[in-house]
Amino acid sequence: MAMAEKTTATVPVSQTAGMPRLHKIIFAVLLAVLLVLPFFVYPVFAMKVMCFALFAAAFNLLLGFGGLLSFGHAAYFGGASYVAAHAAKVWGLTPELSVLCGAAAAGVLGFAIGSLAIRRQGIYFAMVTLAFAQMVYFVALQAEFTGGEDGIQSVPRGDLFGVISLQNNIALYFFVLAVTFGGILFLYRIVHSPFGQVLKAIRENEPRAVSLGYDVNRYKIIVFTLSATMAGVAGATKSQVFQLASLTDVHWSMSGEVVLMTLLGGMGTIFGPLLGAGIIVTMQNYLATFGAWVTIIQGVIFVIGVLAFREGIIGVLSRWLKKPL
Amino acid sequence: MTVALEAKGLTKEFKGFVAVKDVDLSVEKGTIHALIGPNGAGKTTCFNLLTKFLQPTRGTITYEGRDITRMKPAEIARLGMVRSFQISAIFPDLSVLQNVRVALQRARGESYDFWRSEKLLSKFDEEARGYIDEVGLSDFTSERAAALPYGRKRALEIATTLALSPDMLLLDEPMAGMGREDVDRIAKLIRRIAKNRTVLMVEHNLSVVADLSDRITVLARGEILAEGSYEEISKAPEVIEAYIGASHD
Questions:
Q1: CB A179 within 8 A of CB A237
Q2: What are B51-91's pLDDT values in tens digits?
Q3: Residue A302 within a domain
């Protein structure tokens, strides 16, 4: 060859169509662990981890596979939690319908904001998403139905499909497990679909995708909407678990936290965001006694994470194993 | 002879600086037409105008008799006019096969299906392998595109472009940065794929286009300096002056 280019050692492309065996095994092990987990740890804590894992996975669809950094994902997560809490408490809907309402609201919101935000790129895109998220925060603070500083409290847990009572933490746990695990598998499918293939092409080389005749903005709006919807599913489910929708869920720091989870675990990997969410939520939970120091500790871990594992924990692992994870 | 692509009075101004001025260009169907000129002559701007990556300040562009002046780049691609890029335009993290499949997938639809498995795409494998074969990359089918040497990346780019079955190809310096061996291979490839297509290529290097193109347009300082066959333009004093003057001062 007349000219050889320097190539970086990276993970080889997966050639097999369908889910690789390694992924099947990891999902199976994960499911097995989650099935017995509530008998060993406090179920509410486990449910919180699962909700954030789905939130981070939804965010990763946009950042890791769509190449779009949104800095306002709290709007969909928190917005959906308010709508779902309102649906369960005021409209008296069953849990699954409340979650659907929340997800639908997040999807509509995501479509509207996404359609405007994708007109800008890079840092401007992030700023536009942040600005809209701040508006959603303002609405949550000021609107009548959101309860201002109090949020929506004592949301009833209700009966699943109108028959199965979710008062019991274990029963609720399996509902949350079904929703979040199903959501993560759905996100996996999106990444490995014909649409996902085009998405990766756009992320890799946008001008070339345009020159092949792809209307890239449409793909970006769709992936933004899908990501917002799934973030909504996570937020709506969380409101059912904690029987609460509060300003924390729509605050900009929540948008930052999901970026942190995704980067720490490994953006653009399948399992990274799940691990990232697990680490961050566990830290917040067990370090809670340190009070405000949690933020400092989190910051230090993030700095170390970024310096030592630039591709995130799973990203580095994936490179070692030479297998996409 | 019918005209495939035609530009009339094409002008592009950037904040007072005129990059392309009153360019009239017509590319005949089924020919290889080269656009050449020294550095800074406005070749790339002109090329980006024709492929709609830039909007002209003035002037019209027609393709197969249809006014495309105000169209979006993705639209003209769907009309069958596909461009390449100066730096090799591949999707580095996808395999060679997947690169070509992305093009086939667009033409056949299903690209919005986010709920279906990508197994669906394996129905394009056979056709994709055909194009990969055509550019001599069959040994690299499952290689990651980023790992290919430069010349082969360009070949992959051409395979991807061919997969769209375009009637017209616009190549932006297809030989830029290549060694001798690669230049010959890509030249051969261009000649072969141009058999039943129209090609417009931008080139910096006169010798490369000499035996490849049917017609050559020389651009200098944003304006057309000369047009004709290689024999004609290589003798034109203004072309010699522009080239020698530009490269040896």
A1: yes
A2: 888 999 999 999 998 899 999 988 988 898 988 887 778 99
A3: no
The answer to whether residues A69 and A126 touch, using CB atoms and an 8 Å cutoff, is yes
Q: Residue B91: list chain A partners with CB under 8 A.
A: 200-201, 204-205, 208
Range of the domain at B186: 3-247
Phi, psi of B220 (to 5 degrees): -145, 135
Q: Within a domain: residue A322? A: no
Domain count of the fold of chain B = 1
User: Of B90, B118, B144, which has the smallest distance from its Cβ to A194's Cβ?
Assistant: B118
Which tens digit of pLDDT belongs to each residue from A262-318?
999 999 999 999 999 999 999 888 887 877 788 888 888 888 888 888 889 999 999
What is the enclosing helix (H) or strand (E) of A101?
A: helix A95-117
- Residue B39 exposed, middle or buried by CB count within 10 Å (0-12, 13-18, 19+): exposed
- Whether residues B114 and A1 touch (CB distance < 8 A) is answered with no
Number of domains in chain A: 1
Query: Do the Cβ atoms of B101 and A197 come within 8 Å?
Result: yes
- Whole-number percent of chain A with pLDDT over 90: 69
Residues of B in contact with A189 (CB under 8 A): 114-115, 117
Residue listed under structure tokens 């286009």 = B209
CATH for B219? 3.40.50.300
| B94 vs A: CB within 8 A | yes
A-chain residues near B95 (CB < 8 A): 13, 15
Task: Report the distance separating Cα B61 and Cα B49, nearest Å.
Answer: 9
CA distance B207 to chain A (A): 19
Instruction: Identify whether the C-beta of residue B199 lies closer than 8 Å to the C-beta of residue B32.
Output: yes
Residue range of the domain that includes A149: 40-250
Between chain A and chain B, the number of residue pairs with CB atoms below 8 A apart is 152
Mean pLDDT of the A138-167 span: 86
Q: Does B244 touch chain A (CB under 8 A)?
A: no
A205–chain B Cβ distance below 8 A for any pair:
yes
Which pLDDT does position A15 carry in this prediction?
52
Burial of A237 (0-12, 13-18, 19+ CB in 10 A): buried
The answer to whether the CB atoms of A209 and B102 lie below 8 A apart is yes
Check residues A182 and B113 and name the one with the higher pLDDT: A182
pLDDT by residue (tens digit) across B110-163? 788 888 888 888 888 989 999 998 888 889 998 999 999 888 888 898 889 888
B16 to chain A, closest Cα gap in Å: 25
